[in-house]
Amino acid sequence: MARPIAHDSDIDSCGLTYTELMELWLGPRHGASVFDTPEQLREAWASGRAVVMRLWGSHGRRPAGFYEFEWEGSRPPYDRERSTLWRADVLAVEERSELELEWRVAFDAAKGKSARERREHFEFHDIPPELIERWKAKRRRRNCSETAAKLPAPEKAPGAASSVEGKAEEMHDSGASVAQPADH
Do 71 and 5 belong together in one domain? Predict the structure, then answer.
C-alpha cells in the first residue's frame, strides 16, 4: 500500500521542516525533541496536523502527534492500534470500511483451521472480537438456511391437523372437550 508523497508545497504551507514533521509522525528521536517547549510542539501540531494526518494518519494508524494531542489515555500497542481506533470510532468512514473489508478477508481465510489456529489468525490480523462474533453469527444463519433448503419438506400424514384449530376440530369430532380461549 503506497503512502502519499510529501510535496514541497505541503511543507511550505504548514511552515514546518521535515525534521519537525518527522517528530509529529514518530515522536521525539531518542527522547530529545526538536522543539524547545511543549507550547512549540503544540503550535507545530496545530500548523502541521493536516499534512501529518494526510501522510501518516491512514489505514487505521495514527501519528505520534495525534496520540499526544487528540487521544485520551496511552497510545495503544502497534499490534492493537487499528482495532482500538476502530472501536473508539475515530476513523473516517472510508478508512473504517477499508479495515472491515481487510478483516473480513482475513476472517474468511481462517475457515477450515482449528479453533486455536483461527484464534491466532484473528489476533495476528487484529480483528475486533465484535466483528468476529457478528460474522460467525451471520455464517451460522447462512449455513442453517442452506441446510434447511436442502432438506426435503416433511410429509403430512393423511388427516393430520396443520393448526391448533384443526386439532380442536378433530377433538370436537371425537367427542373430547376442548377449552376455548375466553374473549375479554
Answer: yes
